[in-house]
Amino acid sequence: MTLHHDLHTAGYFFNPRIQYKDNVHNDGEVMRGTMNVITRLARTMNERLDAMAEVERYKMKVGIYGGYDMTYAAQRLTPGGFTCLGVCLKP
Q1: Whole-model pTM?
Q2: What span, in angstroms and rounded, lies between the C-alpha atoms of 65 and 52?
Q3: What is the pLDDT of residue 48?
Q4: How far apart are CA 43 and CA 50, in angstroms?
Q5: Which of 31, 46, 59, 65 has an alpha carbon within 20 to 30 A of 15's alpha carbon?
Q6: Which of 12, 15, 85, 89 is nearest to 51 (CA)?
Q7: Domain parsing of the chain, residue ranges
């Protein structure tokens, strides 16, 4: 996959329609770009660490990201339907 900008890779990573597929593929480029965006948006090291921990929970589909409700919503909503999946950072 070639996504040339960090923001594109973060958009790919946080798209629930992609992440809740059975064959999701998050290679190094996707994770590196996502972490770069988080690093730029986070104002403090604590915010960065909290966001990175939340990314892991999202990736593993645990906590609020697991279960039938989230999977069902990911299948039904359009890409703009999810505005925040628990990793929103205040601008």
Answers
A1: 0.68
A2: 15
A3: 95
A4: 12
A5: 46
A6: 89
A7: 6-80
